[in-house]
What does this fold into?
Amino acid sequence: MPFYPALLDLSGRLVLLVGGGRVAARKLASLLEAGARVRLVTPALCQEARELAGLEGVELIERGFEPGDVEGAWLVISATDDEDLNRSVAVAAEAARVFVNVVDVPPMCSFIVPAVVRRGELTLAVSTGGASPAAARRLRQGLQAQFGPEWADYLAILRAARQKLTAQGRPAAENRPLFYQLVDSQLMERVRAGDAAGVDEVMRAVLGPGFTLKELGQSLGRDAAREREGA
Amino acid sequence: MSTTLHWITLIAYVVGSLISLGFLIRQRQGLYRMGLALLWVGFGLHTLALAAAWVEGGVLPATSLRQSLDVFSWALMGAVLVVNLSLEVKILGALVGPICVLLMLAASVLPAVPVVKTAAFKSAWVIVHVVSIMAGYGLLALTCLGGVLYLAQDRALRAKTMGPVFKRLPSLSRLDSLSQSSLLAGFLLMTIGLISGAVYAQMALGSYWRWDPKEVWALITWLLYAALLHTRLVQGWRGRRGAWLSVAAFAALVVTFLGAGLLMPGYHSFSSMADLGGPRP
It folds into this structure.
């Protein structure tokens, strides 16, 4: 049965996470990144998980899992290697009609998490439906090479231009071909080359004056710089 | 008097066009303003020249191809200058100026036919007919030019490198607005022109439609522009497709204006203007 792909808005929503190991720590990090509030239920925490559990938005309950823990959660993730515990989490979630993911045990999952590449607002999700996590991983690495950090700037520019243009109140039908013109133009090449003057020139040629990087409050290479700093 | 004014107009247009071309190449704002001012002066003189020709001939000066070309170049220049007031497309002067110069030169070298003083050309209906058709033609020529420039800019944008053309062309959004407003105004004027012509034909010839070649071609042209407007406003055909269509529709307009006047027999052809009668009592 094929999965139905969706992107979830978890900001401010409660997610139950069961487990305290390295995998649980990784899941906790990605949940916090999506802005979720996390109820973390585990009798024991590894170092990484403990650091993250101190962050805002995490409600730490240091004991074993009880079926009542799924109360109020939008999503449940079980990241333990205890098969009986995983099963009872899955059953409790199923009973409460909450989607549950048991890490590395596809048959117990009502949702699975794809391999993800993020470039600013671009999200590329790859899933083999659990057939081969290895293949999904290789595919993700290929996409990472193919879609460089310039996509973050590129999309930020397009978003800013779009907001500014629609704020001018022209009918949508009038603006639509302009957006297509932008994505069909050399804008991407200019962003990738870090050529700010070239970007301004393309924006002027399509949208007219008032759409330079400076006027849109954008700049190039922020993401690349961030990556270098982080490295 | 009208001849003298005609030549002074031509001189103003030539100088204005040259300065505007200078702006196109050097991109100096001072040159742009100077060229535009000269074209305005030329347009004022041109208006005076046509008015003088009207007074001298006693009828609307559009009875021969020579005069029609002159009126058309006046309408085109007027359309550009007026549209430019609200939608500044700075390179238009450099493009339209030379076209108007060529049209006026063509008008100058064509044989001067004696002005036909038929009653038809004194009728208010015919004056409205000719003036609105001509003004409409000028605006629709501008729509076509906007389309051509749009396609050129579009091509430059898709190219891998940014050439000098790219920097000088107006933005696509500006060109699209130019095409849109000139199309709306031009279509409206053309419609008024066709209706007033039909009204006069009903008065003078007893039927508002006679399958004259020019009438037929004008209808084809009008339908093309109606389709262009429809696809643009209703189906949102802007951009490339709209630009191509506006160029194609203008080709039909040229056939109507020149072909039907020169090559096809009919009461609209310039050679038979003399036979046009006035309204029947």
